[in-house]
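Students often ask why inverse folding is considered easier than folding. One informal answer: many sequences map to the same fold, so there is more than one right answer. In these notes we will look at a single instance of the problem. The structure comes first.
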């Protein structure tokens, strides 16, 4: 998978899961900023580790 495909995949995942991840993080952390940071960290790790799923949906 080239970088362009990879970025499109991550963007699609972000759109699909951002709210779910945020809600889960907020349910645990009870802090807006920490929850936003947790979501960002999740997607940064996805990019760093080159994790790939067949289908983001």
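Output (designed amino acids):
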């Amino acid at each position: 998978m080239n970088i362009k495909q990879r970025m499109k995949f991550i963007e699609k995942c972000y759109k699909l899961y951002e709210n779910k991840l945020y809600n889960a993080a907020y349910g645990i952390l009870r802090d807006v900023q920490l929850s936003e940071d947790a979501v960002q960290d999740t997607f940064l790790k996805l990019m760093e580790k080159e994790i790939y799923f067949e289908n983001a949906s």
